[in-house]
């Protein structure tokens, strides 16, 4: 996993055309490994995302004795499930790399095991808050040690007896919800969470796909411990969070007409489409269908004049990973865009409010960070030097910004793009972006 200074150099202008397919959904790919490993029987996965984050999850389960064949070049995996009680103690630390999803969801799952594990992360993950999972898991009876600041490495002690609790989540986080539900598989009685706003529901959907009963009543999600998971087939759709870069790119680049195929349309993930449409984007959803319990569509994007908007707060959790590139859309729009209620962006792979504001300012845009959001005045992106702070989505957002810029953009620290979007540069070139790399 190299995090050396891979740089992107993006030439200004151009347009995006043709048909593309972006890689598999990251959230669904993680969960396919976790639930497939803990199921009884053989789970076949297709469309698995071979990004570093999901490969960390895959490797962790291999280290705990699960036989997993693949992934093949086109993302096929065969997981020989060991059952909920079938994992074996790893003889090394579980390395979670850059992946908050792996670390937080696994905290829940590992709390229910009979053995101890130690989970480590890279420099970004080592700064991210884990108390949001360790505190409620401790209420269930889990024993997890973190640093004094509540950051990784985490040591999860096995052999605890877990009890179901009810937990009212203080923040809208699918990772916290999922950690508790996954611990709940091992707990006595019912585990339930309420969420302050809807968050992605892939864990609930996939548990049901594996034959486990999960109740959703309004904002309350619950399950009973002591059941079992039965192997199934999982077809992972393309990641809407990866598609978002191209939705924005084709919207801002005049003359674009791009088809993005087979994109996951789970309603807890489609905030980016709603926000772009409010800004005046021309997005057409075609061939809507259901694939393995998740809605999927092809998205046709044609360039459009965008307007600045006040982003409705209820859309924030439904577009949480797409804000870096939405800020690029706002920079190319007419007028002001105001985001509020998005303080969670400050604790992602980087502080996405500050890092985007710095980068946009370096490219000639007025971007004013606020404690829980940002105010962006649409204008003309110039060009310039920016750093992604090793955040994959920041790197790709500034690559897309090149389409609306007047001179080249040089982006530092782009190697982490491989955590979520292997092949980004090649695919972006094919679609029409003038992007090259150096410094590998
Ligand atoms: C994810 C949930 C989100 C998201 C992350 C993936 C998941 O995090 O930002 O990229 O797969 O559950 P939060 O739930 O912490 O907002």
TrEMBL record:
It is an enzyme of class 2 (transferase). PROSITE patterns: EPSP_SYNTHASE_1, EPSP_SYNTHASE_2. It is found in: Cytoplasm. Catalyzes the transfer of the enolpyruvyl moiety of phosphoenolpyruvate (PEP) to the 5-hydroxyl of shikimate-3-phosphate (S3P) to produce enolpyruvyl shikimate-3-phosphate and inorganic phosphate. GO terms for cellular component: cytoplasm. It catalyses: 3-phosphoshikimate + phosphoenolpyruvate = 5-O-(1-carboxyvinyl)-3-phosphoshikimate + phosphate. Residues 10-425 form the Enolpyruvate transferase domain. 3-phosphoshikimate binds at residues 26-27, 31, 173, 175, 321, 348. Monomer. One of its GO terms (biological process) is amino acid biosynthetic process. The active site is at residue 321. Phosphoenolpyruvate binds at residues 26, 100, 128, 175, 352, 393. Pathway: Metabolic intermediate biosynthesis; chorismate biosynthesis; chorismate from D-erythrose 4-phosphate and phosphoenolpyruvate: step 6/7. The lineage of its organism: Bacteria, Pseudomonadati, Pseudomonadota, Gammaproteobacteria, Thiotrichales. GO terms for molecular function: 3-phosphoshikimate 1-carboxyvinyltransferase activity. Belongs to the EPSP synthase family. Keywords: Amino-acid biosynthesis, Aromatic amino acid biosynthesis, Cytoplasm, Transferase. This is 3-phosphoshikimate 1-carboxyvinyltransferase.
